[in-house]
Amino acid sequence: MNLAILIENTARTFPERPALAFGTDVHSDYAGYRRTTAALGAAFRERFGLAPGDRIGLSMANRPEFYETVWGAWHGGFTAVPMNARLHAQEFAYILENSGAKVCIVGPDLAETFATVARELPRIAYVIVGDERWRALVAHEPQPIQHVSPDWPAWIFYTSGTTGRPKGATLTHRNLMAMTLAYFADMDWIEPTDSIIHAAPMSHGSGLYGLPHVAKAAVNVVPASQGFEAGELVDLIRHYRGCSMFAAPTMLTRTMNSPAIARADFTNLKSIYYGGGPAYVADIERGLDVFGPRLLQIYAQGECPMTITYLPKALHDQRAHPKWRERLGSTGFARTGVEIKIVDEDDNTLPTGEAGEVCVRSEIVMAGYWQNAEANAAAFKGGWLHTGDVGSLDDDGFLTLKDRTKDMIISGGVNIYPREIEEVLLRHPAVLECAVVGKLHPEWGEEVVAFVVPRPRESVSASALDALCLDNIARFKRPKHYFTVDALPKNNYGKVLKRELREQLKKSGG
Prior knowledge:
It is built from 17 helices and 25 strands.
């Protein structure tokens, strides 16, 4: 089973349907998409001497050629290693070296960066999209699909590396096919007239959500900006029918706060699946008011892509339910084919309502970290994937995440979950963003500290935030210090880097 069969089947039935678009311009139909990927698969083998299973690195800002490269790699039986375009040259070099990639396809905007990488790793063949070498690859004579085992690596996803070196989560053809089928089981049906807009990085979740859209002959749309611009997104939704998109919660917030929202028409908007970071209840409620009943929440990891739990559109809109807000604060319930349990530090299963580490078992869980036996032993204790997230299950099977295990604050021997406090602080109308971390304390071990970003042209006092906390959570949980900042440090995927905030506290004597 090779994932490339999805394009083969779609192109046979819907050859003239648009497959890839750049802004409002069609880049290729499915017949052309099929030909290009078949040409690339053959060219990788014949021009570079690659054998099935060899790795092909790729890094570029969102563009149609990203998908041509990924599916071309699969067509030839190779493994794609997508890298976020915003990484540093040293990070690119590490991933390429660690994965053993033999070829790397690079966007034209990264040519200078990869010239530096090439000096460090000259053994790799580098191709810049759009240059003469690239044009020769896509003009190569197509050849049939290289059939591979379902357990053959298809995509190696390197973690963001917020602590230590990133690890390569190895996703097989079986994993990604199971993910694709679970989309139809849980999320949405897709028609050939539908579309998906890739405003989030295609090297991450957005790229994976393109698979079910290829399977059903929908068009994959890359914004002309090659990323997220709220005004452009509003205009693309107006242009394309049956629009879906993956978005980080920060993208939803920025869109709602954009002046472009005044001209928005969401008639064509079908679904927004959000995840990849904390989604706060206040923001979700506002999102429902702005976008309508089109929101789905997903909880997943690169190790179990896009498919652990979900909160479907119908439950977002179930305002009369007595647990409505409580459920909005959860990540929903287990996806089709997924098992979840909560364990303590000794790997004992915890009863309903108790918080512990979230563990997952499913066909969608990665095969393992690429050539990292030590990490695999830690991740797969007892045959379950240990996510590193702290959460609890209620009587109805809804999972509520507390925090990452490394972000939990222990003060006076008591576990404090920053997200609970952040949910409260965000209720203040003047607070745009916030992050709660632990600061070292000689007596209590840690004390709670909050970093707060006010909305433009607004301010908020520590006393007002303190009063809000005292009205809503236990006194011992409230922050002991509030720091007003212009912005929170974030990684390439928009996740707040709490380790950097903790480092700031250490440097200041915390």
